Amino acid sequence: MINLELSENMVKLQQNIKMVAKSMFRPISRKYDEAEHEYPKELDVFRGAPLFSRSKNKKEAPSPASPDKGRSGPALGQILSVEAMCWGDCGLLMSVPNAGVGNAALVAVGTDEQVEKWGGKWIAFANTESGAGSDAGSVQTTADADGGEWVINGEKIFVTCADRCDAVVVWATLDKLLGKAGIKPFLVEKGNPGMKLEHLEKKCGLRASDTGTFVFTDCRIPKENILGDPEIKQTSEGFKGVMKTFDMTRPMVASMANGLASASLDLVKDKMAEKGVEPDYHKTPNQLSAMEKEYLMMEANLEAMRLLTYKAAWMADKDLPNNVEASMAKAKSGRTATLIAQKCCDLLGPLGFTTKELAEKWMRDVKIMDIFEGTGQIQHLIIARHILKLSSKELK
Ligand SMILES: Cc1cc2nc3c(=O)[nH]c(=O)nc-3n(C[C@H](O)[C@H](O)[C@H](O)COP(=O)(O)OP(=O)(O)OC[C@H]3O[C@@H](n4cnc5c(N)ncnc54)[C@H](O)[C@@H]3O)c2cc1C
After folding, report:
1. Which tens digits make up the pLDDT trace of 13-61?
2. How far does residue 159's CA lie from ligand 1's centre (Å)?
3. Which of 21, 174, 199, 275 has the largest CB neighbor count within 10 A?
4. Helix, strand, or coil here: 284?
5. Residue 197 φ/ψ, nearest 5 degrees
6. Domains of the chain by start residue, with CATH
7. Cβ < 6 Å from ligand 1: which residues?
């Protein structure tokens, strides 16, 4: 039976990580918002501690002696950590070495040997192209077999940690006529003469995290750098790897949004307390001030966001298919956190519009949560297809 109550261990983990976020991220948050593209060298202390790893005992039943009684697992631990870190600073979390979306892709689709070989690297994820973002299966970048190598040609845009990563998981097609079935992931290491970092974006938010465009021109990589099944004929599972990665990372994006929303709400609560206003949970709606009412509504929404996110992670920990739940969590958290961060700036008055506080930054940072890893509209499509039992061809 599903149990989303956090165990004592999980609560402790959350508290400890929040302390780290408070003492390490918050003090440098504004600095790296202003110094876009500069690597936050303070994050070097996290090198060698991968965020994504492959559980070796996934199928093992929880030990009856475990105080967590089967409630905890790596995915739940990850999303709690991510929320706590993003309460500190989301752009900085995305700049932590070895925590790239490509690392999640490697864990999701790579063989055990590949995870062992490249797991220690910082890996970016490059799927988006100018004609393939929401329609992730329209990838035009090609991978052609030539002797003992793959030759990659194409352009990938909006790649997170493009400048800082050690390697990139590039999604390319073996045969455009095969559509999604022909798309496979390839690991390209930095320094390859065929891969050029064309430019870095200037962004409105999440400025501590770098985002860039790669151009691949006759980029030659070893044959073994195709991730997962190397058999060229067995391409039917190829594109599913993108979706498998998103099943892991969408709940994480949801928890990033939850972290930003909770940071905004905590600030508003502190400012209300300074004015002697404490939200009273025992009052009826007509006894509450407008500000208290707004605040309590947002708190309730944050609770709903968290429960959906925990559920998606709980299912991942139980090895249950969670793609719809991952989309639900991301759709709800991405959209609602954006509204919460904006409303918190409203409630803070002029303070919400100045750089004295981080509220205006969180409002800028949070917008991306409803865009990357599939926009809110795309998550709604995925959910609707599931409910209506329609295929992606039937409901576009
Ligand atoms: C800061 C940042 C970091 C990123 N990091 C990465 C990364 O590391 N790796 C990577 O591969 N990509 C990355 N992306 C790309 C991101 O995932 C895409 O931008 C996103 O998926 C949207 O795709 P698109 O840009 O093609 O938008 P489009 O598909 O052109 O969408 C434009 C608008 O149309 C809507 N829309 C599109 N299709 C439909 C439909 N069928 N029904 C209803 N509405 C629709 C969308 O919701 C959106 O509102 C990043 C983007 C940003 C901004």
Report:
1. 999 999 999 999 999 999 999 999 999 999 999 887 766 666 544 444 4
2. 12
3. 21
4. coil
5. -80, 105
6. 8-103 (1.10.540), 122-225 (2.40.110.10), 240-388 (1.20.140.10)
7. 101, 125-128, 133-134, 158-160, 203, 206, 211, 368, 371-375, 377-378, 381, 396
